[in-house]
Design goal:
mainly beta; two-stranded antiparallel sheet; CobS_N_dom
């Protein structure tokens, strides 16, 4: 079990938490039925996806 601890972000706002789950198989091509937490919207820390 993983505990998620919410802390204040450096700018004084509440730290964001993942709000959806994604398939490891669909996202990374790994032969697994596992799902992992993810963010539904990117922010300034997320690079643009390179589809190549």
């Amino acid at each position: 079990m993983v505990a998620i601890i919410t802390t204040d972000a450096p700018n004084g706002s509440v730290a964001r938490q993942p709000d959806i789950k994604i398939s490891v198989r669909q996202t990374f091509g790994i032969d697994s039925d596992m799902e992992v937490p993810a963010f539904s919207e990117s922010d300034e820390h997320v690079p643009i996806v390179d589809e190549s």
